[in-house]
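Hey, quick one: can you model this chain's 3D structure?
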Amino acid sequence: GENIVFLNKKKIGEAFLANSYIKEVDISRKFPNKILVQVKERAPVALLVTTDGFIQLSEDSVFLDIRQTPGSYNLPLITGIELYAIPGVGKKIESPVLEEALKIISGSNRILTGKIAEINIDNERIIAYTRNGITVLLGGAEDIDNKLKILEGIMDDIVDVTISVSEIEHIDLRFKDTYVIKQIQD
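Sure thing. Here's the predicted structure for all 186 residues.
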């Protein structure tokens, strides 16, 4: 019932941005009687394990929601990161270590991300665990894009093709441009 000339676009935008899942909002008037609202959403890409619960995180480290259980989300867990202060919902969690973990998740393609169950960061040493139980030693975050490409090739061309997943102790990608697949010794 209100004239669109008198609507406060800033106030409407702030109402949308109060939702942690909303990243951007663009509001425009379309005369004589319409308002167009375009929304860019954030999607959860990982669950950060904390003593308070499982925090859903967006690609840009924004705290989207918190749950007491991981629920039915098929998202990788991020463990080993110690946070001394957790900001409120909708705020960015400032942590260089967390940014590295999210870079691994966002840097890999969606198929590879679906195969990663957990990323553990301990003293800048990164270990990933796949959904089929393989430990992947990534070392540090340097050259991570290349390491992820190598891991993708291993998962597609070697695991369960030439070596059964049950025979693999771990995959070691800590060395530049090479990898080691350690098999379980009988």
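One thing worth noting: The chain has a mean pLDDT of 88.
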